[in-house]
Amino acid sequence: MKKLKFFNKIMFLVNSLAAFLLLISYLLPYLPPKSFATLSVLSLGVPLLILLNILFFIYWVLQVKKQMLLSLVVLILGWSYLSSMYKFSSSKKVENENNISVMSYNVRLFNIFEWLPNKTVKADITELIKKEQPDILCLQEYRTKDPVELNGYYGYNTTFNNAVKRGQALFSKFPIINSGSLEFSGTSNNVIFADIVKAKDTIRIYNVHLQSSGVNTDVEILKKETSGQLFKQVSKTFKAQQTQVELFLKHKSKCPYKTIVTGDFNNTAYSYIYKEIKGDDLVDTFEEAGNGFGKTYDFKFFPLRIDFILVDESFTVNGFKTFDNKLSDHYPIKATIALD
């Protein structure tokens, strides 16, 4: 440190802070938001912290400085975080006659409030679904007042008592023999489920939409918010999410079938929320067969993956795709799986 020039001393101080915060973030999946609400907010910034530490590592390498070891060690300690954010391997695609395709998509009410200038969002989303023909389709923020017309699917959806009639929807090419909804108090978010039959197997599908922070990601709007206000809002959201997840896990624990959990978690793979939902018995299909950043949310500052398809370990993951269709503030994802 003494041999560093003044500018590099400042750089190393910033590097040390970024490394320390990333190191602390490795504990976040084990810290319940109800007890560590403010600290849990850090999980949203993990992708940025990873990118910063990579940049600092490259910076010191180019200068042949031993300070490169700081970020290198922290990144190695969190290698699973790196693989969760970015998959270096190419997308896996295995053809199998037993394959089942599962698509999840937060459609943001088909753009009825014209967040996007595109006037044909609903038609474009419908066309995408018809082109991809997923065997199982889970939609969040689905406008039940103006449903999508899909042939060849069994369907189940929930409607909330509000002006736009929004909820979640689940469609299946396989017969649905049971379905229901897990209602969360004081919110329009919820979880719906359906039991489907494929050949001799019954499979439980959960379509999850956890509490949203309600924070507008528009840069100009964010500038008007104080950091205290943002932290308070997100902390409150994560506490609500924990309550919602506890309700979901209680319901899931009674399920006798192989399970698929899809949807918009409104949280990252570095969070307590994700860890609890994934548990020890589910596999993240992106980590198994995806590639690249796997970005699922249109966040301006760094790639965010907050939409997931998690499947029982009994399934083999034969493919995963993240679409780049700009028809919502989320991007659709699709996994291809097969029962062993």
Please give a handful of descriptors for the protein shown.
340 residues; alpha+beta; Deoxyribonuclease I, Chain A; 2 domains; 6-stranded mixed beta sheet; 12 strands; globular; membrane; Endonuclease; endonuclease; Endo/exonu/phosph_ase_sf; nuclease
Structural features, described:
There is one protein chain. The chain is an alpha+beta fold and 340 residues long. The protein has two domains: 6-85, no CATH class; 100-339, Deoxyribonuclease I, Chain A (4-Layer Sandwich). It is built from ten helices and twelve strands. Helix 1 packs parallel to helix 4 (68-77), helix 3 (46-62) packs antiparallel against helix 4 (68-77) and helix 8 runs parallel beside helix 9 (272-278). The termini are far apart. One of its GO terms (cellular component) is membrane. It comes from Winogradskyella ouciana. One of its GO terms (biological process) is GPI anchor biosynthetic process. It holds the Pfam family Exo_endo_phos.
Give me the strand/helix succession: HHHHHEHEEEEEEHHEHEHEEE
Q: What proportion of the residues form beta strands (DSSP E)? A: 15-25%
Number of domains: 2
Look up the CATH topology of the largest domain. Answer: Deoxyribonuclease I, Chain A
Query: Which consecutive residue ranges, at least 5 long each, have pLDDT under 50?
Result: 219-224
Mean pLDDT: 89
Determine and state the CATH class of the largest domain: Alpha Beta
Q: What's the architecture of the largest domain in CATH terms?
A: 4-Layer Sandwich
Describe the strand arrangement of the main beta sheet, using strand numbers: 3-4-2-1-12-11
Query: How many helix segments?
Result: 10
What's the quaternary structure here? Answer: single chain
Structural class: alpha+beta
Name the CATH superfamily classification of the largest domain: Endonuclease/exonuclease/phosphatase
How can the largest sheet be summarized?
6 strands, mixed
Gyration radius (Cα, Å) is 21 Å
Helix content: 25-40%
Number of strands: 12
In whole angstroms, how far apart are the ends? 56 Å
Q: What would the principal axes of the Cα set say about the shape?
A: globular
